[in-house]
Design brief:
The protein is of the alpha/beta class. The protein has helices at residues 11-23, 34-43, 60-68, 87-96, 108-117, and strands at residues 3-7, 27-31, 48-51, 77-82, 100-103. Strands 2-1-3-4-5 form a five-stranded parallel sheet, with helices on both faces. The protein starts with a strand and ends in a 5-residue tail after the last helix.
Length: 122
Amino acid sequence: MKTCLVVDDSRVIRKVSRRILEDLGFEVAEAADGVEAMAWCTAVMPDVILLDWQMPVMDGLQFVKRLRNEPGGDRPKVVFCTVENSLERISEALDAGADEYIMKPFDGSIVAGKLEYLGLCA
């Protein structure tokens, strides 16, 4: 079973994401910020990470830069899920190591489409 780490400071977003991902057949873990997410990735590197940008402690951009420098940190697909919608911010996220980008609010078909595009679900 493929694993997904949902990283968002909103408990509601984590809950909605979990439901979507479990329906797609993923085993899901959650983290409220980049520090929690990094600890989780150090223990068990997931197949994919859904990542919010604006979070306390360590934001999504800081997290993805750090992740990509960790052993095995090049393996997970990272999908930013955020309200940041300017072309400059999207480019910044992709340049930092993100694989894809989803705008909030999102639904199950959007998540499924991105994960299918990344080769993570049929």
